[in-house]
Amino acid sequence: MRALLLRDLRLAIRAGGGFGLGLAFFLILATLVPLGVGPQPDRLAPIAPGILWLGALLACLLSLDRLFALDAEDGSLDLIATAPLPLEAVCTTKALAHWITTGLPLTLAAPALSLLLFLPVQALPWLTLSLLIGTPALSWIGTFGAALTVGLKRGSLLLSLLVLPLYIPTLVFGAEITRRGAEGLSTATPLALLGAITLGSIAALPFAAAAALRINLR
Amino acid sequence: MTWLGQYAFDILLAYGLSLLLIVGLIARSVMVSRAMRRKLEDAGE
Amino acid sequence: MSIWEYANPRRFMAWTAKVQPWAWGIAAALCGPGLIWGFFFTPEDFRMGHSVKIIYIHVPSAFIAINAWFMMLVTSLIWLIRRHHVSALAARAAAPIGLVMTVVALLTGAIWGKPMWGTYWEWDPRLTSFLILGLFYLGYIALWEAIEDPDQAADLTAILCLVGTVFAVMSRYAAQFWSQGLHQGASLSLDAEENVADVFWFPLVVTLAGFVALFIALVLMRTRTEIRRRRLHAISLKARLA
Lengths: 218, 45, 242
Prior knowledge:
heterotrimer; A: 83% helix; C: mainly alpha
């Protein structure tokens, strides 16, 4: 499991792995939004939580289609599947590697980018916290979607159609935490619900993803 | 259509659009069903 | 003889051939008079005027839209557990019906909302969750269309249906949570039967039953189509091998 994790991380960091791609996309989005809606702080500040969360979500989506596709192309997915490691563990590892290469950097970069969107300073810890809790759910749900579409030739478009509706609860609660944090309201309830979604996804979705992978490899 | 009151247009629009969609679905289902049966007969079943 | 005997494709074709005309007949006998009754012979509502007539399409289509998904969930489970091919095909047959009904419910709701609420669209939890339901239907149908191998497609869409159900329910609660405090809940709650006077209620029950019969008839017909398509596929495979 550790060997697979290290292998995935190494592949991602190497050129063409798409490690910086998500981050760059996030940066571009944070630059484009003020250009689109205007630079006034009173206009940007209210939509900043939503924009930052949407950006994180789309950046996550961007690197999903290569999660299993590259391994399936060169045949290493079949080797991994026949290894003694159960497929559920493989899916967990893949999701973890995806989170470390996209979710974690996004979480760390979000506070800096939030300054571009005039997010109130008191919301910064809440933004970071909500992303830290919420992005694992994005990675695990995405792994399930990638496992569903791994056998398809043009899967990436379908992947976003399948995965984006599944992201709705995470997006709602994540943006709500940041919004409440910005307004100084209590964030306990959405925080607990977001945590529940993440824990539930981590616990249950590897089984669904592994089942989908098995069907695709059949 | 005066007896429908001030919302006549909305009511007719709602009924028209929905019936169009539902009848379209039924017609499509029937057409596909017929075509499939014919194909199957041609294939010698 | 167990009930599963009826899921054998050959037997399924035999009994549905007999049942199908009845289903169509009942659907026509209920939908036609129900809609005519609702459209021509209901009085004005004191608050909504004649626009209340839209209810006879809006509520049944919304009812079918939700329950079609439940039916797909059940048939997907049956497919995953007992491997009855007809079950998987029935789920595939129901999805486009559910999508059309979702669109109809949203459209009639929007047209009704304009004169009543002053807006076509409101980010109300109920409306939002219906829109999300439509997205789930779209993804499900797209996955069916995308995969060539029939068994593989049935398996993968069944898994998507199970996971999607969990997330659709979560989205519904998330939507409720999210628009809390923005504005009051929808005032046209139809779950409370005392809201609706008997004059409006009886034709509504008739159209509801009619839509259910229509749904059954459509599912049977579309499932038969899918079974024939599958048999055609098998014949062409055999011809290629021979």
